[in-house]
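Work package 3, deliverable 3.1, input record:
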Amino acid sequence: MQSRSTGAYLGWTAALFVVLFYAFVPVLWLVSLSLKTPATVSDKNFVPQDVTLDNYTTLFEGGLDSPLLRPLINSVAIALIATVIAVTLASFTAYAIARLDFPGKAVILAGALAIAMFPPISVVGPLFDMWRTLGLYDTYVGLIIPYLTFALPLAIYTLVAFFREIPWELEQAAQVDGATPWQAFRKIILPLAAPGVFTAAILVFIFAWNDFVFAITLTSSDASRTVPAALAFFQGESQFTAPTGNIAAAAVLVTVPIIIFVLIFQRRIVAGLTAGAVKG
Amino acid sequence: MSTLSIGRGSEGDPGQTSEKTKAERRLAFMLCAPAVGAMLLVTVYPIVYAIVLSLQKVDLRFPEESGFVGLDNYAAVLSSDLWWSGVAFTSLVTLVSVAIELVLGMALALIMHRALFGRGLIRTSVLIPYGIVTVVAAFAWFFAFDPNSGFVNTLPGIAEDKAWFGDKWSAFSVIILTEVWKTTPFMALLLLAGLATIDEGLYEAAKVDGAGPVQRFLRITLPLLKPALLVALLFRMLDAFRVFDSIFVMTRGAQDTESVSILGYNQLISRLNLGLGSAVSVLIFVLVLLIAFVFVRGFGTAVPSQGGEK
């Protein structure tokens, strides 16, 4: 056991502060920049001297034609749709792998792993060409397809790990006790599977929310451009004003949902991230 | 409650077994088909298509000049300095960032594993860099090091007008810092999960035998952590090799900081040269395969092929 002396506690407190400092400095810096006025944005102070919310409000001026609203809607819609489809497809596959006996299980898992390691840049050229031919270039579908595919391995591995832990015999036990198959599924299996499905959904959403390579190669306008891509192409109000404050404000806005996710679901995220990788 | 009845349903009639097996397989294939189909459509088909494109001259700015050119595109790429300096820079970013991540990640994992209190707080904080959008992280560090508005140049010991992005090696340091900051938590979490599988009794026994903390780490932790360590290293190496977002935001490849992914992007999307760009894509794919091969064959990395099976 650890010796719980005062020295040990001081040591851990110091370690804790180092980790907090590590994690939060860049985030706080962005918050600080986003609150600075145009006159003080270049003052290099870590703490803003003059505070304004203008950087945030200008992002939404002009409604759908504003710099951020449309990309924000695109990001949320594309990530959500990709998440729902990926998790649904991955649930089917993971159920088959965890529960059914069939040849080719190992091939599917190995293939999924290979795709998890696949360099996206190797397929953007062909996808760019294919999507232009098929009319999917610069559309939601054109981004949803690669997102859900590249997220499938993560979702399948997470769900297989969770599904293997479910005591499936309870389903039969419930049926023997008089439950219909639907009742047995809804009342027994669904509540047991839900945490795993939810974990997979969070991981897929974070993946789709984060992507940049596909977002800048397969879109050309705000019709389907997501926030990371829009950020990289942000223009200042005039040629001579650097949009630092606006970029920082937009960056803070896309970070907020992630921080909320992490605060609420940290246990699940950790369980999901490590499910496939270590237990195997 | 009904423990006795468990398993009754699975006692199949022996005569029906093969019929049941067939039905089970059919169901399994139907359940797997959509996911497998999607994965093939977006990876295998495009990579084959990339190989086909790479053997042709396809320049969208000069569509009338298209045609089969054999291995000319590969010859052009492989004989260009730009490609080799890109490979060298990408390899350097990969090796340096993963090496630092390994050391920091191990320290972080040990802190989380042995935490006396505040474990949840630490875990929440390290997940923030993991969850943050890479482009956002890149902007945060870019603005921090920006000589016009960043706070870094106000720190003691740093020249006030240091142009971090005006020189290859200072830009390299900031890129490394961004990559390390963003991905160390992932490394730490994988190592932490590995640490949790080590039997505490071993440490007690070693303590009784007089082994110090360093000896315990080298003789118990490291050898037992090796499988988890290799998987984490493989994942991170392949991920680091695709480095794109942070370089795109910070330098766009200026000052000789072009990674192979940036190179591919420039050929494919900026210059619309699909033939040459596809040759770059295929070569990147080959390099990634090579890294995976070295890990699996060379180091005996046990790739988790049975996800979660104990």
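Strands of chain B lie at 56-57, 67-68.
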